[in-house]
Amino acid sequence: MASFGEQKLLLKSDRKLIGIRPGRNVEEVILTYDNGITICDIDHKKVKRSLSIGKGQQFTASCIYNNRDDEYVVVQEGIVIRTFNEQSFNNGQRFTVNVPIYEITADCDNHDSAVVFNNGNVLTLEAVLENPSGIPSTDPLVGNILFCKLLTNLTSVMCIQEDNNSFLVFGNGYQNNEKSKIQFQYRACELRSVCVHCSSPQVIKVFSLWSDGSVCETSISFPDNVGLPVEFVNIKEFQNKSISGNNMVSLSSDCIALVAQESGDYREVSVIDTKFGMCHHTISSLPLSTKIYTTGHNLY
């Protein structure tokens, strides 16, 4: 179970935040805005490095730190990948791809850094940079991507929403080109938010929030459960709460956080123990623009 200390102000800005990702060290986080990048030391609550982009340009996906090559990677204008280190932002390299990018995921023990494209393709960053204009132009993915999780370089799971229907898409094989798609639907409800926790390259937990206030857990084993009907375990019911869209994060295998509308002008963040279905921490009286992110053991 997670424990929570006092709230601390890390940074104050009126710019549009794109996302927050882990930095090169455990004490660092990377904040990506539409017009710049800020690297923060969370232990000492100070800015270590701040980078700006030219007027009329914008970043469109969160900057990540690629451990393998000791460099930062960010997406600009949806199709331009920029790689740089802390001393060479303006002198870094640029690669223009032929398919719009959804996000770039950082490398870890189980997989390399990867690029997730809007058409549903998932390729390693190395492969993309070697041939940026050769991204397969498969049939466009219908619907919006809610998340994409790489398990290994060969396997991934993605959740997409098409109108009021939602689906899980499993990628398998070299560069995830072999895909299978199954319906991800709880009762007759609309999916409001979803997040995933990866216990191992073979097991994931998908946490989902539905329009009737139900919070559900779905466990999937690879490759055993792929292609089988999805089973939902209802772990909590939210009553009399207006749930915001696509804003839920996994803190551990048995703990999630989500944003709900507390009253007309405020939001609240609820931290839920999924094992016992208990809401054991609430942060109240937050602005309507509240979004949450997690890196390591911290909730932002």
Automatic annotation (TrEMBL):
GO MF annotations in UniProt: RNA binding
Domain of life, source organism: Eukaryota
Alphabetical GO biological process terms: maturation of SSU-rRNA
UniProt domain Nucleolar protein 11 N-terminal: residue ranges: 15-278
GO cellular component: nucleolus
Protein's recorded name: Nucleolar protein 11 N-terminal domain-containing protein
Organism for this UniProt entry: Ciona savignyi (Pacific transparent sea squirt)
